[in-house]
Fold:
Amino acid sequence: MPSQKPIRVIRAKQPLSIWIKQLWQRRETLWFFVWKDLKVQYQKPIFGLLWSVFQPLIYFAVILSVIRFSGRTTSETQLPFELYLLCGLAIWNFTTSVILGGINSMQSNAGLITKASFPRLYLILSPLIKSMFDLVIVLAIIVVTAMAMQVQIPLLFPVYLFLSILLVLPVSFGFACISAAFIVWNRHFRHAVPILLYATLFVLPIFYSMDKIENQWLRFFYHFNPIAGAMEVLRNGFNPFYWNLNPMLAWSASSIFVLIVGTFFFRRTEQTLADKI
Amino acid sequence: MTVIEVLSLSKSYQLKGSNFARFDALKNVSFSITEGESVGIIGHNGAGKSTLLKLLSDVAFPTSGEAKVVGTFASLLEVGTGFHPDLSGRDNIFLNASIIGIPKKEVGEELENIISFSGVGKFIDEPLHTYSSGMKLRLAFSVLAHLKTDIIALDEVLAVGDSMFQMKCMERIFDFKKQGRTILFVSHNLSAVKKLCERTLVIESGEIVFDGASDLAIQFYLNNQKTSGLNNQFLKELTNHCTTKNATINLNIEQLESNVEFDFGLNISDPSGNQLYHFSNRFIDQRLIPENGKLNLKLDFNHSLKPGNYSVSIYLGQNHEELAWMENVTELVVPPYNPYGFHNPDAIQSAMIADFNISTT
Structure:
């Protein structure tokens, strides 16, 4: 039955419709990428778990000690500071691991890119899905900490949690795509990306509150920063009636904007990926 | 029915550094393949064979032109794509198959066959880093051996592994052919191409220079050892002709200083870079003096190389100074024959053939 055989057309420019169709058709390969990463990490389950939460917990311990020992006040936040910090770090850790995971997987799979055909976006998506697993574990730690500190967890908390993930997901994905595209364009950028990412640890309201910031430009920056937004939404989950989420629309819009720009960049690079990498 | 239709496909790469220069890896390539054909693709290193397969496999995109592929297609540009050392052999079968584009369901149905074909036995659940390189190869090939796609494209997959493995692979590829599947076979192994394919394309500097019966194509390829695209101010033309026992290499050299002593060296090495022959006019005390800045050199020698491709590197010097050192500037192709009259030349592992006797004493 020749009419049933798939017909594939090879052209200089792949139409967007086919690109999306392949993204869906080959999804099994994406699961295999994710499954491989998880299986390799969780071969020794204790270590697997440890590596998932290692970075946020180390940062948590360091920042908390620095602030405590330097005698800084931690009372400016609505939540207990430990919880406040953990929420910020959970989101920050997720974003950085999506971006770093994306560029690492582009590099470590350079051999695959020149030898096999599969939607290249999977190289960004599979570390993203894996980072989501890690995020779930960190969130579980947050919930346990909240219970231990006798902070009440409102019924609406899951809704806020969901909103927060919804905010941070597109922007992380978008930045991962943009970074990957930059690195393909000029591989020296791979040294710059981690440095810039670690700088954001201080730029984002992780261990301070953005309510206290008076500078107009900084406030503007936070109001259009969906990562800061996701942190704020997550923290609000513990206190749903204290609403300071007015920039929600701006956060969502900029998150979607980064997603679109990132996808666009990635698709542009994808066409020449096998030639350049 | 036509299953592959290629219409003036071109691919050019941007060269880095040099003022947006472009390198044309494929120029206006057109051909079509009907269902069940086995088509060989031969040509020098860098002639564009692999580029063509990459375009057909969706690994890279063409610069212009179009191709249409009807039916399911799997390409093996490498053996064991995506293998992960920390996963077991069994897991790697699924991973590798999925990356090539074979659904999990299909692999699951064939899993027992794949494992038994690979012959890794009880090691199948051990992590891959405990495997020998031979075991990895066998595992990778057994995934390929159970492919069910309509079209199979193979790039130099036989260049690896020992001769037993190569023979087993070849048998399997012949099975594909018997099942009426379409095969694209890129290889430097001319005797394998001759055996497997009734039709062969010869690619030279990104163009198809011959498309026809394999016998004629191989003949054409061997008779056309002229190296094009020489990018050297001194070496203007380089041709070679090689038979099973002798080789002749001709060089036209220009823009030399007249009446100043000239030095010439030529190396022949196997694909892994081992030098097999080294020739120079100095070894035989022959003085070369260019007239009007030109020299036409002819190098003749007897060789005892087994059939295959060897790369040629050339040194040019004048007045004890280097003018040019061109590594792997062309290929010497020893035509397929049966050394010692032995039926399976692939089983001979050395590059050199010697006259030998074995007697009982």
Observations:
- The CA atoms of residues 164 and 184 of chain A lie 31 Å apart.
- Chain A is about 75% helix and 0% strand.
